Amino acid sequence: DDDTFSNVFCEKTKKLIDVHLFALAAQYYSLSNLGVSTPLEALLEALRGDNQGTTGIKTDEFMTNKKSHEVQVMSELVDNIAKYCGIKQVIDIGSGKGYLSSFLSMQYNLKVYGIDSSNITTNGALERNRKLKKHWRAYQSRGRANIESQRLEKANDRPVQSETNCKSINEGLLNKSRSLQHQDQVTIQDVVPSCGFTETAASETSKQTGVDLVAQTQSDESKLSEEVLAILNVLPADAVEVFSPSQSNSVELCQEEKEQRKIASLQAKASKSRDSNLYFPLTSCITAETELSDIITDLEDCMMVGLHTCGDLAANTLRIFAAKPEIKAVCSVGCCYHLLSEQFENQEDCPEEVWGFPMCQYLKDKGWCCGRNARMSACLALERVAVGQMLPTESLFYRAVLQVIIEDIYGVTKSDRHVGKTFSKSSSFIDYVRKSLQKLELDDSKVNSCILDYYEKYKHRMNELEAFNMLKVVLAPCIEVLILLDRLCYLKEQDNIAWSGLVKLFDPVKSPRCCAVIALKKQSCF
Fold first, then answer.
1. Which residues are CB-contacts of 113 (< 8 A; sequence separation ≥ 6)?
2. pTM for this one?
3. pLDDT at position 416, please?
4. Strand order in the sheet with 497-504
5. Residue 491 contacts residue 519 (beta carbons within 8 Å)
6. What's 305's DSSP letter?
7. Considering only CA atoms, which of 277, 325, 278, 326 is closest in space to residue 87?
8. % the chain with pLDDT above 70
9. CA atoms 476, 477, 480, 482: torsion sign
10. Which segments of the protein form a coiled coil according to its record (predicted)?
11. Average pLDDT over residues 242-247
């Protein structure tokens, strides 16, 4: 019913009059309630077909828990999309320190170009990747030691296992196996019936590596060491030098066999050299008009990815994907909505300009505008607040009072400079104001005697500010879904796209910007 939420605001004053109804309306229009997203599990199952996923090295050895969670989930999805489309090249837009890029190259043997606008960040990513490769042999040695240790532990435990337990385990495994055999297979057509994909693209995924075949035939004993063995999966098949008894054979070889072995050795070294350089960090500023072939000399059929691409970069990623025939798929997770450029925010008539919002023709025809305050709100994390990670009320209060001081004393209402994370580096409100004024290049001597007066004047309104920010948090998912649906609608408007959707990838408590915009080109474009 269109009138259900009509009493949230006063018709005359436009003020909020029903907080409970406001919260219900915000929940109703959030992504989880609109029914427009595709479940990650269903998409993965459709992409894989009969093939199983690969267990790989645990990313928390190299990065924070948040980044580890993001890279683990997204890299698995990217690998499945790449296999489905039959491509081996990935372009990581806004690659930053190269967490996703290096993991895609080492774990999934994909050729990845990581593009970032900062040369400092690119050099840092290159150095990080070099250090990561140095530790491969150490992980291999540690993996072997752990495997042997676990085998001994299992051997010692066997005598005390009862026949009843063994029987129940065997029966459980048998029942599980039968259940799996009777499960219906999900295809891309099941996820999005109008997609038009056939089994030919999926058939490319039927080729399995030696590691996959070994994993499928593991006994219960070897499964105990699965996580340790997974460390070795990070290397290409010929990147690990395995000792062979033939190396110690002192039998004299004929000249012909020596030549054959020499050629084979050179080929192995060349292949090893190629596989050890599967990640290439590059520095370039990406816009909607960027020609990727100018940056990547060996550009081939590929897919574009972006893990928390900032502001307009997320929108430009989708535009490049739609325009370039060699890009067969895209998986983009945006962030920093407050940095989006808006076509109708300042009512400027710039038809030639490429804007971050809106993208789709429907919202353009409506002249839709969010405004910076709304876009700032979209960056808030409702799920984190819901589990007790409260808003930083004191720092928000400091920032609000500072703005009043700047307007009253200096007459400044807008500035291109930013205060940044000054609160965490300040010992008091006075210290915070002085450091902030210095960053804004304002004379702090003008406020020597009145800083505390402003603090005392507004201190009693701190609870009011907290309540206001809680309302912004409740509204945040609605604003975010507007931006995401705008991007999805833009993709739906393109004639060369077979399927597009919104997919919730991450745990929103760990990673609040958790939704990916994903699209696949039509087969005629392959």
1. 89, 90, 91, 92, 101, 280, 282, 295, 296
2. 0.72
3. 80
4. 279-283, 111-116, 89-93, 302-310, 327-335, 515-521, 497-504
5. yes
6. E
7. 326
8. 66
9. negative
10. none
11. 35
